Amino acid sequence: MTEPAASPSQAPRRVLLKLSGEALMGDHEYGIDPVVVRDIAAQLAEGASDGTQVAIVVGGGNIFRGLAASARGMDRATGDYMGMLATAMNGLAIQDALEQAGCPTRVMSAIAMNEIAEPYIRRRAIRHLEKGRAVVMVAGTGNPYFTTDTAATLRAVEVHAQVILKATRVDGVYDADPETHPEAQRYTQVGYTELLSNRLQALDATAVSLAMDNDMPIVVFDMTVPGNIARAVRGERIGTLISGEESR
User: Which of 74, 166, 204, 219 has its CA 20 to 30 A from that of 228?
Assistant: First the structure.
């Protein structure tokens, strides 16, 4: 189902796309696949062609993951800061691809790196969006111990997005792991409370709680299906909607 287009009296639709770092790897074991990044950028430009305002939060797991480093003996805070730097590299790759696709883009960082990114300032980010620029938000929240899922939820609330679009490699939220439970059923819609109480690991609990407290809907969808990112940005009903309503 597609949402009706906004009337002239309505504000443009504003969405926040959460991309994992792994989404940029393609078939490689690590790093950035330029072909994949260009495809993501082309879909974002297509989806935003109706005036939809797009913010993006990107992870860094394709380059470095702080939690994994912590498990091998590295200080967790140090590892998380290294992961934040990895998100900046990914953000620059996305910016380059978006601008080649004709979409003006700004990278905004939660930690200072003035030569390559603007500092994240909420009002400035909103202004960029109002001017039709895509905004790529990197370095998470700027604090260790918080995931990029939590950063995405925080930024979505701050810039008054209507929805968070979580791009994954599965087609929604299931009542069990579909890889180990072939009989697992996919939800078309699930409530925040059920997601938390049943530990359905679509997002981390902090992100879900923040979304619930601010009534921020989340759509979990499969980005590997051609055209799905554009469909999600346009507001077509795909994947699983996480909201305050009951499951179905």
Answer: 204
**Is residue 71 pLDDT above 70, yes or no?**
no
Coil, helix or strand for 53?
strand
If you search the block for the tokens 């072939």, which residue do you land on?
182
CA distance 154 to 17: 13
**What would the pLDDT profile of 77-125 be if each residue is shown by its tens digit?**
999 999 999 999 999 999 999 999 999 999 999 999 999 999 999 999 9
State the pairing for strand pair 53-58/14-19.
parallel
User: Residues 6 or more apart from 114 whose CB is under 8 A from it?
Assistant: none
Residue bearing the bigger pLDDT, 218 or 1: 218
Between CA 211 and CA 218 the distance in angstroms is 8
SS3 109: strand
What domains sit in the chain, N to C, each tagged with a CATH number? 14-243 (3.40.1160.10)
Kindly report the backbone phi and psi dihedral angles of residue 202, in degrees, each rounded to the nearest multiple of 5, phi listed first. Answer: -85, -35
Distance, in Å, from the CA atom of 69 to the CA atom of 46, rounded to the nearest integer, reads 37
Give the span between the Cα atoms of 245 and 222, in whole angstroms: 22
In percent, the amount of the chain with pLDDT more than 90 equals 70
Tell me how crowded residue 76 is: count the other CB atoms within 10 A of its CB: 14
Question: For residue 153, how far is the Cα from the chain centroid?
Answer: 9
The Cα 235–Cα 239 span in angstroms is 11
Task: Tell me the one-letter amino acid at 147.
Answer: T
Distance CA 91, CA 41 (A): 12
